[in-house]
Amino acid sequence: MKQLIFVLGTLLWPLLMEAQSASLALPMPQTSLKAAYLGSFVYPGFKLGLERPYKVIQFQKNKKGGGETMLKERYLSANLGYYHHETFHDNVYLLLEHQKRRQHNNGWFLESAAGIGFSRTFLGGTTYAVSEDGEVRRKNLAGHNYAVLSASFGGGYNFAIEQGKSFKPYGKISLLGMFPSNSFVYLRPTVELGLVCAVPNFLKANPTLKTKQQ
Amino acid sequence: MKNILLLILLMLAFTACQQENNELVPNANETIYVNNEGASMRVNIRGNIASKIVMLVVHGGPGGASYFYRTQPAEERLERKYAVAYWDQRVAGASQGGSNKGSLVMAQYGNDLKKIIQTLRYKYGENLQVFLMGQSWGGMVCAQFMTEGNNQDLVSGWISANAVHNWGRNDSLSRARLLDFGTAQIALGKNTAKWQEIVDYCTANVGGITPEISAKLNFYAYDALELIEGFTPFNEDEVIRKNLISEKIPYTNALLNLVNPATKNLINDLRGVEFSSKLYRITKPVLALSGNYDFVVPEGNAIELISKVSSTVKERKLFMNSGHNLEEQGAYVDAFIKFLDENK
């Protein structure tokens, strides 16, 4: 129990911290909700989540013909994912992700995330169990529980930069690793197309801010 | 509100009725799972289940998949007349599970097979006739099942297609076949360098066969198939590529099951497992098929199987232009149909 409190405390501490006040050249990221279509090969699904920034680093990148101000944004996000693979399984999973986003001043951003979570699958067909006496019975909601590790990479466009709109369409590819699957691992690639929307005054974030020169 | 509830109830009732009516149809396509000892095993029932006769595929491996066996002749000829149950064994194909490494023992596979048959009979009626078709490692699973207690009463016959029932003896048969065939090929001046390498290896390892030698012989047995003029080995990748979407194959699951380290441990444990001494218990009809170019599970397996079972109905057939993976697909399917016709 103590270990659980320590892990949760470590994860949530940045969210509870007060931010340093400083001025930013680009809009400060906010707590946002996100919703996405999730495709796993040709199998459909969705992903819903919440992302909350806890740290922002503003830096100047010097280039020929002038410099560019960029933000390195760090988020913690919680997500609920689902996909349906007919005749194989339906998979519902919860993911806590540590997300890194590099926001350019033209609105485009790149991001990567690493996550840990829990998955519950539901088998893709009527499931039976047979006793040693040969008695057959149906099993409802049969499936398996797995631990999940994930890695993802993608990018999108932040309409807040040039148009003042608080949403960001994005796309990313992910690899889910579920284990122990048959005493080994099951890998599942997914593609995600979605929208991140900042909701005013919702779980208002106060990320710590640093500035540096590159 | 009441109308909506009524509509939902009617839709549910209609769906339920549809499912029941679909059970005994001439063109079944249903996927079920059977849970046993930490594994959820996929069974896809295809074809004419209205015939009340099903051929149950017991695939190779361990760790293979039943997807490879749904070839065009199987689909067009076998499934039109009878049903085929494509079973993915534990830690194979689309089968799923958690931490189940401890269950990867020979006896468990026999127990799994029994429960698959019991489920099929529960689902389609106790008068359902089940024929086993075990290929390669599937022969070990069938032999485990058939030689235990009264299990064979649950089936109407056993087709052993390029299958093994004595793991250790098969290594010796494989080595002898590679040595004989390779020596003849060298004499004919065909692919002499590669055949010489194989022959040298077989000659140098005439003593006890260790797991390393067994693995190397298996590697050479597949290599040898590429050396035969005018012979094209069965392309498993092509079957997967062709059916990936239409059969909804969970590719990464099947692939990771194929290379699962737990399965490798099972293979090492199989060295001392044999059913030669128990085959006399079998009284059901048996058909033993072999491929002339099968260096992985050579014809010697089928010869011993037929000589040792007590069945009054037993037959052996050699396919002259086949290797290990039933390359003459049409001819193999015809042999399956003939056996089912004669013994149903």
What is the fold's blueprint, element by element?
The complex is a heterodimer of chains A (214) and B (344).
Chain A: H1 2-16, E1 32-40, E2 43-63, E3 66-85, E4 89-103, E5 108-123, E6 126-130, E7 136-139, E8 145-157, H2 159-162, E9 167-181, E10 184-198, E11 208-213
Parallel strand pairs in A: 2-11
Antiparallel strand pairs in A: 1-2, 1-10, 2-3, 3-4, 4-5, 5-8, 6-7, 8-9, 9-10
Chain B: H1 2-21, E1 28-36, E2 39-47, E3 53-58, H2 72-81, E4 83-87, E5 96-97, H3 106-124, E6 129-136, H4 138-146, E7 157-163, H5 167-187, H6 192-204, H7 211-225, H8 236-243, H9 251-258, H10 261-269, E8 286-291, H11 300-308, E9 314-319, H12 329-343
Parallel strand pairs in B: 3-4, 3-6, 6-7, 7-8, 8-9
Antiparallel strand pairs in B: 1-2, 2-4, 2-5
Could you tell me how far the N terminus lies from the C terminus of chain A, measured between alpha carbons in angstroms? Answer: 43 Å
What is the CA–CA distance across the termini of chain B? 54 Å
How many individual helices of chain A?
Answer: 2
Q: Say how many strands of chain B there are.
A: 9
Low-confidence stretches of chain B: 11-22
Shape of chain B: globular
Element-level helix/strand string of chain A: HEEEEEEEEHEEE
Instruction: Quickly count the helices of chain B.
Output: 12
